[in-house]
Specification:
Chain A is mostly helical. Chain A contains 4 helices and no strands. The longest helix of chain A has 22 residues. Classes of the chains: A mainly alpha, B mainly alpha.
């Protein structure tokens, strides 16, 4: 009998690698009888979707309000121009 | 391209890169390191490296894509440099936090809460993304390193193993620990309409 702990490991790994047939079978049986783990699996799949959306989107998480601070921007600008000058000279 | 071998002359213009892509690179880095100062440093390192290799860029790829690929390499360098990742002494040891989620028989001590029945709706909610970012940032850096590779950047698992110099079983272990922490954090923050719902 697969317990929820093992089932969550399998659900997690299935996001990265196909499970073998024993693992798939064990997980399928467990999910048949365990509504809590079915819910958990839906949530893990949702996280997966959210991650892909966040990683693929321009804003990485949907927050355009997050920007470089003025101080950091200025510091980087100075460093870059120093470097550019150094290369030229 | 009928233009022959010669790439279009693209003068290196780091000041403009900073204006056009600085915020984007910063957000990209911040989501993956969870630390403002580190993210700022990464933007600077990225643009400096871009300046050094601008002649090899030659305008072939989208500028932002090119800069992002440099940033990704800088991130890997950083995760490696942390030294905490390659050693991974902790992989062999039990994860007490994770084990604490289950009772002695391996059943949930507290059932996952209800997140609502409509994932698409959830993904449109501002609070969800705020919580997502907060929870990602709260992960220990070594876990966030591997997880961001898989979850955010969809890097093939084999490649993540190679980049970080770890075995596949170690990668599964780390990813599981990372995913469980991210999930648990979101669950506790009450991302659904009925936070903490469900039987315990």
């Amino acid at each position: 009998m697969t317990a929820c702990k093992r089932a969550s490991e399998l659900i997690s790994r299935s996001l990265d690698q196909p499970l073998n047939w024993r693992e798939r079978l064990a997980l399928a049986f467990h999910l048949c009888v365990c509504g809590v783990c079915r819910r958990f699996r839906r949530q893990m799949h949702l996280l997966q979707r959210a991650g892909r959306a966040a990683g693929g989107s321009e804003s990485t998480g949907g927050d355009d309000a997050v920007t470089l601070g003025d101080e950091a921007r200025e510091r980087i600008r100075r460093t870059l121009s120093d470097q550019a000058r150094g290369d030229a000279g | 391209m009928t233009d022959g071998e010669r790439p279009p002359p693209v003068p290196a213009d780091p000041a403009r890169w900073l204006d056009d892509h600085g915020d984007y690179l910063y957000r990209f880095a911040l989501a993956r390191v969870g630390d403002h100062t580190a993210a700022e440093d990464l933007v600077q390192e990225t643009l400096l490296a871009a300046l050094r290799s601008a002649d090899r860029f030659g305008g072939r790829a989208r500028e932002r894509t090119w800069l992002t690929s440099i940033l990704k390499n800088k991130l890997i360098d950083r995760f490696r440099r942390q030294g905490r990742l390659p050693a991974l002494g902790e992989v062999g040891t039990a994860d007490d936090w994770l084990n604490g989620l289950y009772d002695g028989n391996g059943h949930w001590k507290a059932a996952p809460g209800r997140w609502g029945s409509d994932p698409a709706e959830l993904l449109q909610r501002r609070e969800f993304w705020d919580a997502f970012e907060r929870c990602l940032a709260a992960l220990p850096e070594r876990l966030r390193g591997v997880l961001s590779q898989r979850l955010l950047d969809d890097v093939p698992a084999q490649e993540v193993c190679r980049k970080f110099g770890i075995s596949a079983p170690n990668l599964w272990t780390l990813l599981h620990r990372a995913r469980m922490r991210l999930w648990h954090c979101l669950d506790r923050q009450g991302v659904g309409p009925l936070p903490g719902g469900g039987k315990s």
